[in-house]
Specification:
six-stranded mixed β-sheet; three-stranded mixed β-sheet; 265 residues; 11 helices; alpha/beta
Length: 265
């Protein structure tokens, strides 16, 4: 049984962290599989949207500390940094890949699981969702796997400090208040709610969807309004020159779903 289960349905990949007996904790195999999957997505044109979820009653409980506690011999600082980058590269690849990522965050999303949720584009919670920067509770810094980058930008520096300095859990209700999650739905409705987001995204042209995620990423760190607008102007001209633009307008006027070409490149 694979630690990461991948199911492609048309232009959508449903990626399931598949270690329910360990609350989908990040084993070495799962880390490798996640990194390989998200890095490869950058080059794929057959996938337009990704749904990320956990099997069973949890999203991801963070690093598998039982596995990590196994003797590893004397490890140099350099080797440690390489091992750390194997994990952190996952969230870099998640932001770099052009496909929007919808995270179905059910139950625990702690430590590395919290980072995976934050690195996604849209997060849907259930009433049992609990997220935290667990690293600080096990003798590490809370600033890990991109959390110190994502969280302050999403909720502000003061609230980010509250949760990162304490390791306290963010409940589903609090996450919704803060805008960290889009909706709170019963666990049995997670997949259907995610599918609704997917269906709406697929109304966009393939290029328009990719350029929107790219521009949102860059706008967060843009030097100012003019820099963000320059990027927006460039993307609108690119999108309007794409062959799918005409089909998008035609489908809108005819009140039907668009049928876009599947050109490679």
């Amino acid at each position: 049984m694979a630690d990461l289960e991948l199911r492609q349905d048309g232009e959508v990949v449903w990626a399931t962290l598949n270690r329910p007996e360990r609350l989908n904790a990040l084993s070495r195999n799962l880390v490798e599989d996640l990194r390989a999957f998200f890095v490869d997505l950058y080059w794929r044109r057959d996938v337009r949207v990704v749904v990320l979820q956990g099997a069973g009653d949890a999203f991801c409980a963070g690093l598998d500390l039982k596995e990590r506690a196994e003797p590893q011999g004397d490890r140099s600082i350099g080797a440690g940094l390489t091992a750390q980058r194997r994990i952190s590269e996952i969230v870099i690849a998640m932001r770099r890949c052009p496909q929007p990522i919808v995270a179905c965050v059910n139950g625990a999303a702690a430590g590395g699981g919290f980072a995976l949720a934050l690195a996604s584009d849209i997060r849907i919670a259930t009433p049992t969702t609990r997220m935290n920067a667990a690293f600080i509770r096990i003798g590490l810094s809370a600033c890990d796997i991109g959390v110190s980058y994502f969280l302050p930008r999403m909720v502000g520096s003061s609230v980010a400090a509250e949760y990162m300095l304490t390791g306290r859990f963010i409940t589903a209700e609090r996450a919704h208040e803060l805008g960290l999650v889009s909706q709170i739905v019963p666990a049995q409705e997670l997949a259907g709610t995610a599918q609704g987001f997917v269906d709406d995204m697929l109304h966009a042209t393939p290029l328009g969807l990719r350029l929107t995620k790219e521009a949102l990423n860059h706008a967060i760190d843009a030097g100012g309004l003019e820099a963000a607008i320059a990027m927006e102007d460039r993307n609108q001209i690119l999108a309007s020159a794409d062959g799918d633009f005409g089909e998008g307008v035609k489908a809108f006027l005819e009140k039907r779903r668009p049928v876009y070409s599947r050109r490679e490149g």
